[in-house]
Design brief:
The protein is mostly helical. It has a domain of 40 residues. It has two helices and no strands. The N and C termini lie far apart (64 Å). The model has no long low-confidence stretch (mean pLDDT 67). Keywords: Membrane, Transmembrane, Transmembrane helix.
């Protein structure tokens, strides 16, 4: 019975860990999607790519 209860506990831990990973993955995916949509909308209005390049050049050592 000890082995069975131990495997059951491990299974529960794995299930909880998987649930946590799925939740974090879903959150990350939603944030990335929001950023992509927002960035796409901004790029259509005014292209910020040139500004980003100009800003990153002086920062290089």
């Amino acid at each position: 019975m000890e082995f069975f209860s131990g495997t059951r506990r491990i299974g529960f831990q794995i299930a909880g860990y998987e649930l946590l990973v799925v939740a974090i993955g879903f959150l990350y995916f939603a944030i990335v999607k929001k950023q992509q949509l927002f960035h796409k909308d901004r790029r259509e209005k005014t292209e910020p790519r040139v500004r980003y390049i100009d800003r990153s050049i002086p920062n290089d050592p």
